[in-house]
Amino acid sequence: MSARSWVPDQPTAADLESWDLDPAWSRVLEVASHDGSTYQWHVLDSGPTLDGPPDAIMVCVHGNPTWAYSWATFLRKFGTRCRVIAVDQLGMGFSERTELRRYATRVSDLNDVIEALDIDPATPFALAAHDWGGAIAMGWAVDHADRVDGMVLCNTGIGVPEGRKSPGLIRLAAAGPLRDFVCRRTPIFVGGTTRLSGSHINAADRAAFAAPYSSAAARVAVADFVGDVPLQPGGGHPSDGPLAEVAAKLGAITAPVLLAWGAADPVFNDDFAADLAGRIPNTSLQRFPSASHLVMAEADVASVVDDWLSDLTGGPAAKGVAAGVGDISAPAAGSDRAKPLWSALDDRRADTSTAFADMASGQSITWADFADRVDGVAAQLAKRGMRAGEHVAMLTPPGVDLVVAVYGVWRAGGVTVVADRGLGLRGLGRAVRSTRPSWVVGPSRALRAAKTLRWAPRAELVDIDALMAKAAAGSEPLAAEPAADALAAILFTSGATGPAKGVRYGHRQLAAQRDALAATYEITVDDSLVAAFAPFALYGPALGISTVLPDCDVTKPGELTAVALDAACRRLNATLAFASPAALANVLATARPVSDGLDGLDGRWLDGLDGLRTVMSAGAPVPAETLTALSLFVPNASLHTPYGMTEVLPVADINLVGINAASDGDPIGGVCVGPPVPGATVEILPLGFDAAAPPASVPAGEMGEIVISAPWVSDGYHGLWATERAARLQRGDGKVWHRSGDVGHVDDSGRLWVEGRAVHNIDSAAGVITSVPVERLVETSLELARVAAVGVGPPGLQQLVVVVEDPHGVDGLASTDLTARVRSIVNHRVAAVLSRRALPVDIRHNAKIDRTAVAVWADEVLAGRSSRRFRRG
After folding, report:
1. What is the pLDDT of residue 805?
2. Which residues contact 587 (CB under 8 A, 6 or more apart)?
């Protein structure tokens, strides 16, 4: 297929303005070609509108069937501080139409235009590329690695990843006569590409993407591009060899490479991102879970790349960011290698007492059997071909088999992917899929679901029952223990403040966390634990303490009953218990009144709780009233509320005595979570501080952002480079600090008070109002179970709205009486008081209120657009 050379009409200033492009960016270059000809290239170049010398120069290469408009968001976002040059490849966009150009020729074409762009070699230089433009950019980069300071690759590839076929949509479009019909004669391929984005891009974007391809003559290169894709590696296609040569040389690119990926892309899915990460040494990944193929137009990739460029150029935003983001954290200075997570199993290998029990299933296992079974699982997985570092999705329900399998995977060097069922089917699937597990371990029904729903389409499926049977039959020789700095687990957050995030933990961090828990709560082998929160059960074997799961649905922690808790305590003569605030509330609600009618509660039938010396509750603020009421049933226990998060736990700790003492004297309010635990450092930095120059802590009593440093701070987030970057902070002290996102203050006694999440602050004209002090004041004064304090209106002018939960009330404006009572209590101007029969809470803890959704609903009610549904803003 060929087409005589011609130059399309260029877009007018009115066209460009209608596409929200500065007309000054659009120009045509006469470029001398390596083939002896001269071609006209259209580019969008922000150089003419730069505010000054550029921080960096970025050349952007589009794919098929798009054009330079693919990078419009980059030009708009950082085109005033960086010179962004988006080129139209020959035959594409508004560049000259030419004869057929194969892959190797297009790589040379890219070199021609880069040489013609008058790029200052003293300015940091980066490439950005998408789709088949990515392969072309990589082809140039491997031969000019010394000139590349960084690359951004968006939904692209250099070859078909091992174990899968080339993208189905490309195979379909390339099929014989269909290619000419779909790609050239009709605009089906052009229009279909934007339709992959669904509602993520608007009509104006669709029109802009299609603008250069209004005729069959203009679409010749679209068809040529598709025809130039080798669908079968080694099949003799003219471009197969050159692509393979580039793929083999990608290791030469040592500059930082950001993979900005639309995870919902049916063409270049996560397999292609993983393939590139395995070929290029210095890659970081930022997944956009709901974005498809045109990720740059569908998601805010530009803001992520803006931050990435700041780091690349050493700009102000980079100076306060932790180095090595994306790598396993280095050990703390002077730290020794801790005992491995399974060391307690080795210590108790001859012990025939119960190590773990599950009250729901009736299963239990001794320490001796536990140790042998873990070795057996590790050996069996290695025998089946598991390699160190491979991700293993643990889809086994909480119980004996799950805990044995987790430790077996760790011992084999695998990385456990743990996302509890409380995320729901969709959330669980999204979490598992994001980690691209090589293995899935679970019962047959879970394996069928994972296969049917394509959570792990190319993973090895391991039936947990068969695995346990083989593990019990005898062990094979074990592989070498994984290194202390090796990745051990990806644990998912609850999803209470957005989609659940995968948090990476290395063996060193998990071991440090184990030791911190042991030191904080003085845990010894004589203790035993009731874990009413299933993920916490995994700590038991590492601590060397017997553990029992109560008879309770793990997806509904608020349904734990007093009877179930008592029975679990009796099973192992428990001395420790961990449960969510919602679980403890239901324990109290299900405690029977005294049969003889006397005042008080009858604890005699709950005497299994008498042996508890420590009860812990975390995951959300725990009302002191709940702990006080619970103390009647656990007369010998100290009631603790450890503060922490999936990213770092524990951080601080306080018991009921400390809570009562704290409540007497702090005028600011919030929830007192106590002093930092040994080994953890907590500081309060001013709200909105400059990460480039982190300031000193604010004085005692002053509210700010809570930042934390500890040897057990997690390594970061899986596939979320931007989130990880925002959460990490370096302050020049050799430590990496975690930005918790919580706000609070430290009092004169060194106790930490949490006042809410920074994103939930009410930014009023009178100043910032934190949510938790308002909520706690209303809850305790009016004896309400749940209250949400939210801001409605634009930042700086937000109005404080208080929403109370009333199961017997109505959804909408609260009564005049209740409104007056709330306003009389709160020390800030309350614009309105609303009522909801139920406030939205997270599934895992059944306690964290989704204030963002509440604020959206409140805004609708006050604007007269009353809605019964909660929607996230």
Report:
1. 94
2. 560, 561, 562, 565, 579, 630, 633
Residues in Cβ contact with 638 at an 8 Å cutoff, skipping those fewer than 6 apart? 613, 614, 615, 655, 656, 657
Q: CA-CA distances (angstroms) from residue 773 to 624, 663, 780, 820, 832?
A: 14, 12, 11, 19, 17
Q: Give me the count of residues in the chain.
A: 873
What single-letter DSSP state applies at residue 538? Answer: G
Contacts of 369 (CB under 8 A, 6+ apart): 355, 472
Nearest Cα to 819, choosing from 847, 782, 780?
A: 782
Helix, strand, coil proportions of the chain in percent (round to 5)?
35, 20, 40
Mean pLDDT to the nearest integer, 423-441: 90
Residue 507 identity = H
Asked if the model's pLDDT at residue 17 lies above 90, the reply is yes
Please report which residue ranges of 783-849 form alpha helices under DSSP H.
816-825
Q: State how far the alpha carbon of 643 is from the alpha carbons of 583, 614, 647, 848, in Å.
A: 17, 15, 12, 14
pLDDT computed for residue 842 by the predictor: 66
Mean per-residue pLDDT for 212-227? 95
Q: Is residue 824 pLDDT above 50, yes or no?
A: yes
Domains delineated in the chain: 13-315 (3.40.50.1820), 343-591+611-662 (3.40.50.12780), 758-873 (3.30.300.30)
pLDDT band at 841 (very low <50, low <70, confident <90, very high): confident
Cα 377-488-358 angle, rounded to 5 deg = 55
Mean pLDDT (whole number) for 525-550? 94
The residue whose two tokens read 């949509």 is 169
Average pLDDT over residues 420-430: 81
Angle between helix axes 203-210 and 188-195 (nearest 10 degrees) is: 150
> Does residue 476 register a pLDDT over 80?
no
Q: Taking the C-alpha atoms of 832, 834, 840 and 846 in order, what is their torsion angle to the nearest 10 degrees?
A: 100
DSSP state of 165: P
Per-chain mean pLDDT for the chain: 90
Distances (CA, A) of 816 to 188, 640, 785, 821: 60, 39, 20, 9
Hey, what are 691's tokens? Answer: 């990460």
Residues 6+ apart with CB under 8 A from 31: 38, 39, 40, 41, 112, 113, 116
Query: 13 versus 596: which is more confidently predicted?
Result: 13
pLDDT of residue 4: 67
Residue 808 contacts by C-beta under 8 Å, 6 or more apart in sequence? 837
Q: Which helix (H) or strand (E) holds 258?
A: strand 257-262
Alpha-carbon torsion angle 38, 43, 48, 51, nearest 10: -140
Burial class (CB in 10 A: 0-12, 13-18, 19+), 20: middle
- Main-chain dihedrals φ then ψ at residue 277, nearest 5 degrees: -60, -30
DSSP string, 277-335: HHHSSSEEEEEETT--S-HHHHS-HHHHHHHHHHHHHT-GGGTTSPTTTTSPPPPPTTP
SS3 per residue for 715-741: CEECCEHHHHHHHEEECCCCCEEEEEE
Give the separation between CA 578 and CA 598, rounded to whole angstroms.
31
